[in-house]
Structures are given as structure tokens and as C-alpha cells.
Amino acid sequence: MPAENLISKAVFQDAAKPKYLVIAEELAQHIVNGQLPTGERLPPQRKLAQRLGVTAGTVSRAYAVLEQRGLATARMGDGTYVRSPEQAVVDRATPVDLAHNVAIPTDDGLALAQSLQRVSADPQLLRQVLSYQPETGHAQHRQAGARWLKRFGTSGDANRVMVTHGAQHGLSCVLRTLARPGDALLTECLSYPGLQALARLMRLQLVGIETDAQGMLPDALEHAARHIDAKLVFCSPDLHNPTNASMSLPRREAIARVLRQRNLLLIEDAVHAAALAAPLPALSALLPEQSFLLASFSKVAGPGLRVGYIEAAPQWLSKLAASMRADCWMVAPLLPAIASDWIESGVAEQLIAQQRVAIAERLGVALPLLQGLDYRSDPASPLIWLPLPEPWRAGPFAAALRQAGVLVRTADHFAVGRSAAPHAVRISLNAAKSCAEVASGMQILLGVLQGAATGPMDRMRATAR
Predict the structure, then answer these.
(1) Do residues 448 and 425 touch, judged by C-beta distance below 8 A?
(2) Predicted model pTM
């Protein structure tokens, strides 16, 4: 039977799904059943559209869904051909990664090669990177770090800066210096998983503070500080992970008042804020004597460049240096030398600019597909926070996506303590290999969200039953 005769207008009767998904489902079923054999050319889009009484664009979208599931392949100028379900399953063994939050590759590899050439051509610098350093870092590296941190409205004073092996290492140094087992630490009700891992290791009690679209609520923080014996607060005022919330200046000032009045020490995560072209002053800039600002390159340049910075009052740095000495003695100086070269040469700003362009390209692919849905995004962030419409729940949705070949993070990955996690997922656009893969993953996600997408393996199992 000709391929176009395998599907008729009757499939649209009582169908709640969009017509393109109905067409895609019918064709997928025929492919899995063998009625459309591997190598068969699907009907021209206009011919099938005319037969079904739909637009050619509707058929085009249906064919695109089949391509995303690996059940068809388009040949330029020659039409769309059926692929074997078995090969689709093999292809889907490597899922589209919309889960991991890493910097998008830009020219950071080239920048690294050029920096290594400059280091290797300087005998004095070679000797420096092979020698012991002060626990807080070499003076030149601290100066470069202070210059980097000025983007967040800090003083630019190198005497307030310590070099670390990334922000996570910096967070570990701060917690080991300030906290003791059993201590309470206040943070957003959805918070950084790295903090939660350290809290478990150090037996700290994390207490979730209610948030809104601007992040931590001052009244909720005040209430918790009044009723809980805590001295530490961890928060991300800019591009909060996972929700993309960012505090306005009045919100920062209100949070700072609570911290000041309650004599709370602030640990501020500015890692994601590095992508902002013009960030507001950090909370730490409003509380320079009772705060610890953590920053790194991991979300704007190669995450393998394990360099971070802590800015804190000088009296705290000697205590942090003791933690560094007990932990690893010093930061290996080669990577801070490369980071300093990037900062001083302007390469760091160039890489951030490239990162923004790459983020904008991926958002341009993803966001139009989410029209009509309640989501939160930011032009400087590759993350999308997506509350799920009824009747979806986060766990089953992530599982259905995984079966369809896409990975995301659910809200419970970030939930603090016994805080109830919302039924939402974080979509990361930066780990996918290309904009085309972003488009493929988002199309699959949308199909699952609409209750229409299942993987080829599921189809074969259903047929066998």
C-alpha cells in the first residue's frame, strides 16, 4: 500500500493532540510495525497535506518529529526516508543533555594555547609556577583576582582576595573556617547542590528560606534568623541556580539590613553573575566586613580551569589561609597564572562576550518552542526554569524524557532539607553539542510535555504486547 494511504483524515477524529503530532504518531506506529520499511520514501509533504486536508507546514512539523525520534532522515532535495527503529534506539543511547550546567565551548581552547606559549617563553614565570606560593596566592594572581571581582562592585583591593581551586573549593574553605558540626546555615529553599553536599559532609543543618521572583525574601530571612540559632547565610543574588531569580537593588539593600541587624555572616555565590554585562553591586559590597564573595570562571569559560577567588575582610583571610594550608597547602600556581593572563590581557572579557552570544543563540532556538508556557529565563543565562503544567509531576516527567532521549534536572535536585520541591525542571542549554541538538531536545521535551512523545523502544514493546 502506498505510504500516503496508510493514514487518513479519520485519525483526527476526537484527537486532542495537535494535528502534526497525530500524523507523526501514526507514521511512527507504521514504521515500528514494519508497514513502512526502512529506506521507504515518505510522501511529499504537499501531497500528504492535500490528502489529509492540512497545511504543508503541519506535515513538515510531523516529519521533523520523526527525525527527532530517529525514525526518519531528510535528504536535501530528495525527500524524507524511513530509518529502522533499531537504529533509532541505538542513536538515542546518547541522550540530549539538557541537565548539566557547564560553559559553552568558545575560543577558550585557543586562549589556553596562547597563554601556555607566553608562560613557556618566560623563564622567570616558569620558575614561579613551579615554586611554592603563599596560601592566599601569589600577589600578582590576587591582584588579577581583585580586578576580576571589581565587576561585582567590590573594592578592587588585592589584600581582600584569596585564590582558590574554583568556587566550590572556596566554599569548602569558608565553611571549614566558620562552621562546626550541627550549625545551622540559612539558604534559599532551592539551593546549590554543591553546598548541600558539603553540608552533609560537615553535618551542617541547612534551613530553606522562602523566595520569590527576586530570590530570598527579607521577611522570611528575618523570621528564620529570629527563631533559629544561625550565624551563616548562603545565597545567589544574581541568576540564581536553578530559578534564574535576580535581586533588584532595593531587595539587596533589604537583605543587607537583615544581615547587619542580625549579625549574620554572608557567603555569596557570584559564579553565574560573571555572565552579566553590567551586574548590580554584590550583596558583599554592601556588607564588606561580614561577607565572603565567591567567584570563578566555570560558567563563562572552560570549567577545567579550576580557578576561583574569595573576597573577604583581611582579618578573615588569615583564618582561610589556615584552612587552605591544612587542605592542600596552596593553589597550584599554573592555572592562576593562566587566569591572570586572561584577565590582564582582556581575553577573559572576550570569552564572556562570546559566551553571551552563544547563550543568546541557544535561547533563540529554545524559547519560541515554550510559548504559552510559564517559564523563567534571562538573556545572560543558559538555564530555563520550567514549572510543569498539570497533570505532570517532576519525577515521572523526567523519567518520560529520559526514555525519549533527553536529560533534565528536577527541582528536588535543589530542594533544601524537608522543603517541598515544586513540580518543575531546570533545562540547561549549554551542555548540548550544538544549537541543532538544543532544537532536537526541546522538540522532544515539548512532545513529552504534551503527552505525545515516546521512544522507539516503547513503541516496539507496545507492539509486542
Answers:
(1) no
(2) 0.77
